[in-house]
């Protein structure tokens, strides 16, 4: 929790931090229109003012005005001209990247000035919508009180996967770009995860673009999630939300300690069994077998169903001066685990958002922000923590994890400057630093070897030999720091009435290292790292790649036609010299500690050009259709370029001197030749306000992704010392290769009603087909010839000299060199060439290893184009149908019958959310035909929230609410264990003649199972039983 206080203290210093992260997205909108008199004649020289911002525009000779760079939100616009009544339009909604049209008619007055106030309304169908964009204002988000986080809101939008806010239209999680106030949150920098810790009450506007993103958005293939956070106000006010989760069983089936998973191995009636004790470890004296050893009962029921849950989010906003304001929000949560885990409740977590806004002048704005996230968790290992794995054998393990804990911190600090050079032109500059750190805490171990590495150990059983009583000591140490600094500049100009030009450039500077040492059992060790080549064993020396980009786009607005035309150029410089893969396993380099001495390739540039086109055709004021086409490129995760994995199937203490010496088997290598992934996307859609405030939308899309990077490229080394031996004559190392492809297509349907007549609703229906395949792996074979083997400077090994305590060079004798040279040449003749001198291969194609791979002289290269691969089949995220329905009801304060001025059903709000989705795919082979793809059963839930305002005094109020998740207690099955039984007989249980089922019952009722990368709690883990939450929300 120290990080929380560091965040609060460091917030005051954010003005001095001018570092940066990633690309900038559209965070402002535009207002334009005409001012005319009652006869329709233009009124040049009219002042149009956005009252809340002190910014505005003046009409030209045709009565046309425009106001650029307006933050999203609701405003009052005033048009005034001497000799005419002033007219004010209130509730003018501005949406990021959209144009709000606000026209005025002024009445001439001769005697006394008067003011006319009119409520403005956005057009039911956005005429300049050239993409599939779904925008939610702060008011829309407040109409979804059940949602607690950014991801909860995002997953309700059309095109978004219901169980993963980073999957849009069937793409991969890394394909989506998340932006906060124009800052892209990187998710491709070494095992990148998408940070989404922006507090709900900090959001001013949320935009989800499921298809057709313009050229200003980069490094993506699927979609965009863009958040604009709130500015502070000129009045002090605060808010708080507290939610309480009562205790209770949160899973289906019997209590964990009485479940059939244990097959009657529980002996609660046996006194000797319930009183058995176990020694967990030494006491304060550090020695086992003494009186202060740590002991505990071997079998103990934990009251896991008595755990309560808490959620708190609050904030404050107010002025710093007449032209400056602040807003701060914080969120903390602690929830009970569904099943007994390393603890009975989740570890600490905290998320904080701070923003300072400075309106320095009408044409000059400055914003400084900080977003902070802190969370702890438990590392896992086989039999290392309390869970129901291994047929329930770990259910009695003590609190904590035999693999330790982790601490993960995210910290984004940014500065945004907007300067209007003229009414037609402005520029924006953003700088930011985004840092992610991960560390390992409380690592239990079975001791330390003489070189300072922790030792692992197997678990210890109880007296019966079934339940694990002492956890395994699974060593899993991870240290990582990722910094992203970026400078981004954008220039925007309303060149003419019909052309809005926007260009920008950005430079992202990465600085990161990653180190993970694992020994999950005494017989295996593995080290994974990202560091500068040549720095081993100093793994904390970071790699520093550079990413550059430039884009230009023109928004052309004509009568009946709006076009967004743009192009984006991206470049990536590795700024690191990767190891020469042609000699990875040559004897002198195969040991990790000497790997640093290898020759390297030059650092490389990769580039990509992405054209984008979007067209909108407003048919009427109530209907429009759009079309988009574009190329989208994304850098693969930086781990694909830079990470290495080495392992050894040897005991922990087999490290002759250097900590890395015993690790000689390289599994994965740096990959110097991969390119950005590319997706070609097309879309056509329409929106129609068919009656009143009911609006329907539809979009059909197709995406073709090529060059998706996978681990299917091998570098094979043929070593003369093992040719002719009992095993294979070669060793190989895997690299990364862009050889996977995806075809994604579908239809999105939306149906929405704005709030009126006491209610609003949004409905989204997605039909999608997400398929993928791989064209096969490839391999390059490197074989030394006799000239390479004969050179003592290129072919040698090392051995440990006990006398000096150092490694010494181990050279071959002349006889051995001659013999091994003959072996190498014979192998080349018989396996690589048809006959001596013929440049053809039996199963490989010869390649110039010196030219293509930079191999030293004497290395013969042969390339195998492709082998293996996978069939074109549904992806794991392929769910053919998903639908969301959200309904919001709100009654006026005086609604319904009253008792002494109190209306029981007045000021009452209800929010209902219905989700339904088809099951994930499974391959099934019927008895009479070939294999086919089928889908698991449908999953559906209904959630309800009802809240009532108890106290309302001006800006102060208190609201009580109750939330019910899975209102109808629907129990859905994911059919994880045997789809064959379900398909043939409709069974979701083991067959009736299964003797284990007959004797004990459903032994898989709580067995954890993973389907398409998601772990479910047993057979019915697709949904949880009904849960009720109580809460109170206050504003002051």
UniProtKB/TrEMBL annotation:
<dbReference type="Pfam" id="PF13620">
    <property type="entry name" value="CarboxypepD_reg"/>
</dbReference>
<keyword id="KW-0813">Transport</keyword>
<protein>
    <recommendedName>
        <fullName>TonB-dependent receptor plug domain-containing protein</fullName>
    </recommendedName>
</protein>
<dbReference type="InterPro" id="IPR012910">
    <property type="entry name" value="Plug_dom"/>
</dbReference>
<keyword id="KW-0732">Signal</keyword>
<keyword id="KW-0812">Transmembrane</keyword>
<keyword id="KW-0472">Membrane</keyword>
<dbReference type="InterPro" id="IPR036942">
    <property type="entry name" value="Beta-barrel_TonB_sf"/>
</dbReference>
<dbReference type="InterPro" id="IPR039426">
    <property type="entry name" value="TonB-dep_rcpt-like"/>
</dbReference>
<dbReference type="Pfam" id="PF07715">
    <property type="entry name" value="Plug"/>
</dbReference>
<dbReference type="GO" id="GO:0044718">
    <property type="term" value="P:siderophore transmembrane transport"/>
</dbReference>
<dbReference type="GO" id="GO:0015344">
    <property type="term" value="F:siderophore uptake transmembrane transporter activity"/>
</dbReference>
<dbReference type="InterPro" id="IPR037066">
    <property type="entry name" value="Plug_dom_sf"/>
</dbReference>
<feature type="domain" description="TonB-dependent receptor plug">
    <location>
        <begin position="131"/>
        <end position="223"/>
    </location>
</feature>
<dbReference type="InterPro" id="IPR008969">
    <property type="entry name" value="CarboxyPept-like_regulatory"/>
</dbReference>
<feature type="signal peptide">
    <location>
        <begin position="1"/>
        <end position="25"/>
    </location>
</feature>
<keyword id="KW-0998">Cell outer membrane</keyword>
<keyword id="KW-1134">Transmembrane beta strand</keyword>
<dbReference type="GO" id="GO:0009279">
    <property type="term" value="C:cell outer membrane"/>
</dbReference>
């Amino acid at each position: 929790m120290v990080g929380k206080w560091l965040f609060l203290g460091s917030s005051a210093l954010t003005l001095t931090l001018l570092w940066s992260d990633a690309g900038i997205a559209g965070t402002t909108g535009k207002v334009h229109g005409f001012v005319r008199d009652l006869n329709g004649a233009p009124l040049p020289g009219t002042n149009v003012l956005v009252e809340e911002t002190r910014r505005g525009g003046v009409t030209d000779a045709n009565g046309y005005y425009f106001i650029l760079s307006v933050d999203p939100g609701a405003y009052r616009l005033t048009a005034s001209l001497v000799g005419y009544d002033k007219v004010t339009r209130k509730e003018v909604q501005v949406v990021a990247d959209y144009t709000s049209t606000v026209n005025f008619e002024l009445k001439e007055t001769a005697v006394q000035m008067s003011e006319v106030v009119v409520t403005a309304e956005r057009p039911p169908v956005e005429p300049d919508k050239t993409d599939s964009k779904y925008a939610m204002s702060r008011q829309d988000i407040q109409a979804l009180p059940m949602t607690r986080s950014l991801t909860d809101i995002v997953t309700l939008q059309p095109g978004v996967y219901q169980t993963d806010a980073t999957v849009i239209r069937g793409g991969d999680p890394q394909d989506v770009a998340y932006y906060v106030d124009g800052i892209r949150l990187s998710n491709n920098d070494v095992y990148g995860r998408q940070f989404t810790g922006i507090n709900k009450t900090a959001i001013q506007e949320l935009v989800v673009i499921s298809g057709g993103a313009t050229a200003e958005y980069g490094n993506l293939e699927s979609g965009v999630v863009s958040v604009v956070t709130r500015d502070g106000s000129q009045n002090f006010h605060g808010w708080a939300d507290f939610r309480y989760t009562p205790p209770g069983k949160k899973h289906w089936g019997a209590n964990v300690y009485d479940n059939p998973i244990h097959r009657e191995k529980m002996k609660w009636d046996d006194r000797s069994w319930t009183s058995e004790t176990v020694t967990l470890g030494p006491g304060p004296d550090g020695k086992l077998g003494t009186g202060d050893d740590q002991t505990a009962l071997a079998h103990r029921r934990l009251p896991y169903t008595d755990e309560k849950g808490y959620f708190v989010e609050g904030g404050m906003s107010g002025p710093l001066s007449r032209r400056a304001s602040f807003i701060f929000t914080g969120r903390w949560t602690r929830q009970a685990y569904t099943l007994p885990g390393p603890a009975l409740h989740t570890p600490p977590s905290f998320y904080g958002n701070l923003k300072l806004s400075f309106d320095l002048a009408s044409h000059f704005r400055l914003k400084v922000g900080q977003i902070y996230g802190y969370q702890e968790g438990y590392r896992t290992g086989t039999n290392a923590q309390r869970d129901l794995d291994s047929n329930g054998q770990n259910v009695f393990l003590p609190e904590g994890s035999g693999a330790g804990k982790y601490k993960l911190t995210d910290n984004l600090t940014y500065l945004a400057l907007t300067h209007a050079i003229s009414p037609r032109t402005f520029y924006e500059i953003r700088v930011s630093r985004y840092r992610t750190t991960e560390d390992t805490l409380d690592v239990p171990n079975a001791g330390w070897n003489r070189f300072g590495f922790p030792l692992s150990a197997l678990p210890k059983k109880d007296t019966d030999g079934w339940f694990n009583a002492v956890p395994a000591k699974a060593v899993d140490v991870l240290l990582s720091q990722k910094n992203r600094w970026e400078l981004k500049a954008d220039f925007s100009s309303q060149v003419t009435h019909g052309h809005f030009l926007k260009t920008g450039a950005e430079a992202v500077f990465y600085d990161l290292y990653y180190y993970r040492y694992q020994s999950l059992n005494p017989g295996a060790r593995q080290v994974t790292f990202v560091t500068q080549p040549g720095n081993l064993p100093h793994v904390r020396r970071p790699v520093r790649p550079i990413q550059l980009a430039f884009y230009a786009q023109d928004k052309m607005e004509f009568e009946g036609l709006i076009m967004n035309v743009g192009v984006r150029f991206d470049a990536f410089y590795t700024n690191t010299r990767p190891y020469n893969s042609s000699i990875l396993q040559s004897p002198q380099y195969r040991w990790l500690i000497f790997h640093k001495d290898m020759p390297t390739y030059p650092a490389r540039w990769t580039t990509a050009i992405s054209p984008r086109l979007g067209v909108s055709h407003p048919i009427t004021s109530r209907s429009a259709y759009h079309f988009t086409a574009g190329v989208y490129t994304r850098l693969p995760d930086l781990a694909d370029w830079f990470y290495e994995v080495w392992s050894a199937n040897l005991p922990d203490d087999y490290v002759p001197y250097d900590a890395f010496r015993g690790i000689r088997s390289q599994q994965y290598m740096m990959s110097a030749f991969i390119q950005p992934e590319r997706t070609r996307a097309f879309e056509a859609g329409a929106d129609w306000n068919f009656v009143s405030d009911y609006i329907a939308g539809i979009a059909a899309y197709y995406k073709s992704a090529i060059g998706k990077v996978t681990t299917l490229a091998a570098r094979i080394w043929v070593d003369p010392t093992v040719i002719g031996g009992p095993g294979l004559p070669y060793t190989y190392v895997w690299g990364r290769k862009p050889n996977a492809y995806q075809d994604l297509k579908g239809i999105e349907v939306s149906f929405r009603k704005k709030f009126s007549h006491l209610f609003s609703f949004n409905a989204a229906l997605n039909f999608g087909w997400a398929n993928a395949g791989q064209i096969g792996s490839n391999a390059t074979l490197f074989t030394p010839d006799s000239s390479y083997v004969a050179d003592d400077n290129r072919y040698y090994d090392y051995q440990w000299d006990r006398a000096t305590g150092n490694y010494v060079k181990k050279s071959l004798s002349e006889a051995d060199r001659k013999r091994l040279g003959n072996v190498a040449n014979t192998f080349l003749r018989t396996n690589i060439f048809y006959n001596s001198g013929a440049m053809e291969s039996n199963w490989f194609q010869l390649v110039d290893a010196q030219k293509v791979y930079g191999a030293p002289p004497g290395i013969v290269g042969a390339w195998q184009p492709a082998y293996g691969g996978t069939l074109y089949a549904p992806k794991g995220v392929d769910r053919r149908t998903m639908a969301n329905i959200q309904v919001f009801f709100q009654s006026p304060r005086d609604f319904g019958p009253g008792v002494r001025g109190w209306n029981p059903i007045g000021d009452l709000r209800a929010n209902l959310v219905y989700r339904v989705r088809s099951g994930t795919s499974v391959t099934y082979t019927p008895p009479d035909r070939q294999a086919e793809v089928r889908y698991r059963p449908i999953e559906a839930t209904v959630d309800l929230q009802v809240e009532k305002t108890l106290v309302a005094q001006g800006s102060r109020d208190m609201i009580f609410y109750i939330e019910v998740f899975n209102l109808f207690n629907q129990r859905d099955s994911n059919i994880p264990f045997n789809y064959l039984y379900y398909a043939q007989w409709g069974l979701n249980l083991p067959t009736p003649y299964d003797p284990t089922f007959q004797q004990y019952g459903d032994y898989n009722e709580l067995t954890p199972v993973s389907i398409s990368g998601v772990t479910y709690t047993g057979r019915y883990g697709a949904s949880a039983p009904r849960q009720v939450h109580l809460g109170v929300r206050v504003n002051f």
